[in-house]
Design a protein that fits this description.
The complex is a heterotrimer of chains A (210), B (322) and C (346). With 210 residues, chain A is an alpha/beta fold. Chain A has helices at 38-45, 94-104, 109-122, 138-150, 168-183, 196-202, and strands at residues 3-9, 16-22, 27-31, 53-58, 61-65, 70-71, 79-82, 156-160, 188-192, 205-208. A 5-stranded antiparallel sheet of chain A has the order 2-1-4-5-6, covered by helices on one side. A 5-stranded parallel sheet of chain A has the order 7-8-9-3-10, sandwiched between helices. The longest helix of chain A has 16 residues, at 168-183. Classes of the chains: A alpha/beta (210), B mainly alpha (322), C mainly alpha (346). Chains B and C meet through helix 1, helix 2, helix 4, helix 5 and helix 6 of B and helix 3, helix 4, helix 5, helix 6 and helix 7 of C.
Chain lengths: 210, 322, 346
Amino acid sequence: MSISLQGTIGRGEFERSLNLSVADGEVLAITGPNGSGKSTIIHTIAALVPLRSGHLESDGAMWDAPDSKQWVAPENRTCAVVFQDLRLFPHMNVIANVSYGLRAQGVSKDEAHSRSTAVLARVGLSLFATRRPSELSGGERQRVALARALVVEPRVLLLDEPLSAVDVVSRAALRELLPEVLGGFAGATILVTHDLSDVEAMATRSLGLF
Amino acid sequence: MQTTAPERRQITAVSRPSDKAFQGVVTAGALSAFVVLALIAGFLFLRSTEVFRTFGFDFITRSKWDAGSVEDARAPQFGVAAMLLGSIIVSTMAMIFALPFVMGTSLFLEYYISRRIRFVLVSILDLMAAIPSIIYGLWGYLVLMPYASHWAASINKYLGWIPIFAVDRENFDASPFVASLVLCLMILPIASSVTREVYSRAPQDQITAAYALGASRWGAIRAVVLPFGLSGLVGGMLLGLGRALGETIAVLLTLNLVFAVKFQVLASAGGNVASLIASRFGEAGPLELKALMAAGLVLFVLTLLVNFGASIIVGRASRSTK
Amino acid sequence: MTSTTSLVTPRRPWVNRRNVYKELIPTFGIAGALAVLIVNFTGLAGPLGSYVAFVAAYLTVSFLFGMRHDKIKAFDKVMTTLICAGFFTAFIPWVSILFTVFKRGASAIYWGYFTSDMSVTSGDDELNLGGLSHAIVGSGIILLIASLIAIPFGIITAIYITEIRGRFSGLVRIMIQSMSGVPSIVAGLFVFAILVSGRGFSAISGAVALSILMLPTVARTAEEVLKLVPEDLRTSALALGATQTATTFRIVLPAARAGLVTASMLGMARVAGETAPLIMTSFYSANFSTDTSGHPLASLPMYIYQNFSNGTDLALSRAWGGAAVLLTLIFIIFTIARLASGRAKG
């Protein structure tokens, strides 16, 4: 199992218990209405919020287990997130945004640059490397965020509503690109979405939260 | 029982007379700050015209300060070059010393401790900002100076071959180095609180994004907080510079004023416009008093410019984040 | 944006400290032991030397601990240590100031210190003679007059910016900003030029100089406070037919009462220790007096300055005594300000 989560997330009325696991090569789609805790799952796996109880493990390593006080810091978790609101760094250009994760983990400048360039080519943004995020369209920004997550070669890829911030035209293009990228991705993927056609196009399994 | 409807109120877009009077009074009161600033500039200028007319531009470029003497038939000669340069040297050194501590303090308070402890520490920091300069001066002269002279001697011993660390005589007391250490302490609270304020508004979502991409805490701070807070840091430091330039008593107590242009920061000789005014004021004759007014005007203009720059930068920093 | 994000309470990811202590305690211990060794075998000595040795040792140890993971972790730990050291180092001088002021001030303080003046005592007489009652009363008088001038003007300025919102609001705010940067010595020179020169030193002129320095603090704090008054209160008062005048005086100002006390107190704390402008306005007198015009009047900062200038050991003790009293006074004003603002929030 590449990633498995058993436990409760959220507080108060939003608290809910979960039991999910995703194997390598699988794409698990999580669907559900607003407020059902879809994003919280992603944030929990990325260590941005702690689990309430239970345990979260990946490849046999315990990432978060409140009962036995085990906790792996976000920088040590082999996962990468594409946030719903992207969260690109506005003061860095595209290539700097993409290579940021590699640089932060101590990869040399040259290697980070060449790996980032390769990933940018994969998402079709080679010509935009020196632009700022503010100079890009919504679809292009989405691709930058995707490239930024892929370049660190995560074991677990977390996509939070990857098509929600995109206009209709770019959405069609991304719908073609995403399954292709996910098909070539070796690790586990968790895809949060509220759009059932996304599930059909990309997911190997789906889980509904209600 | 019969109730009567209240009389119809008149509804207009025109302010009532009482409101107009109120607005007039308040507006007049609010312009007091403007009036005071104009009066300060006006009066200082008026009192110092004679000095500027007599000495012209030499007042800024010469460093001799001599009230003259009737017996020796020496003409009076006033110039603030040494003092002005001294003010700038001492304040700049204070900024350089303060910079790492300002960054350390504001990052520590904002990103390294819990909210409750932060509240307590920020209150203490505010309290420190309220310690009067005379106490900083007293402490600087009687407690810090022995240590600082010792440090200065060591710096001179090992780095004396660098011109600014050289000294003509082995006296390290009351040097610009000591005065700037005291000033550094005095501007730390204000500079840190402005910087911390801007750092605290660094976008949380980008910080978490950096985290989720595998950055360490320092990595996230370097990538997001520092670029974002740069203008706040610059503004806060400039505000501190303004304070340092105008500081009088603490410098007067810890700096030996010498009327000569010097760059030896460890030697017991330096200059400072504000302290010059305070130290010469008591025994000044009519012309020297006017020269002191002129020096005050120079100081006023200088600090006004620095503060103006600072408030523009800080204002822009806080506006851009809203 | 969907509301799913609102589920996640925004918090800093590193707040989770489940296993922070596992490394902190050994690092602390090893660094402490190392520091003891350094102090014993090198030239570093005294509390300051020990501190430097400890920081250096801690830096090294935390770097080595970090290297067990990778160099990124090690660099992170080094920066954490540097940032914490930056903060704690900045606190050392302040602790030293408080400690020295109260320790050395205590030797000058006896019961009569608060009841007698220096009219028959000179600075280098024994410490059981004379006192600073004149300076306390003088400071009180000067502060009171300064507050009477600066507080109304400060609050009016704030009212202009928050209530009237006239077309000069931007200009007024810039002016207040600039005024807060006026060097205290320049304010002193200015008041000397208009009030003292030709007429002689007086408490009034000292108060005017202090009020110039006090106004910006009061105005800015009051502006912040008035901004906190909910807009609903204003609109509902206006909707009930109150004039703007009535709204301001009956609704807004009473609602912000506690905060305005804070603003006034912060202004007083800001100027209570000002020395430079008093040298050229109210100057100093050794006699107890409550006369506000025509004569110099003593004040706590000038008492300290005079005794410092005297320079003998006994006079310096008196200066420290004055500093302890002044600092206590400022801390009391500050505490009142804090309590008032606490109430404003509650």
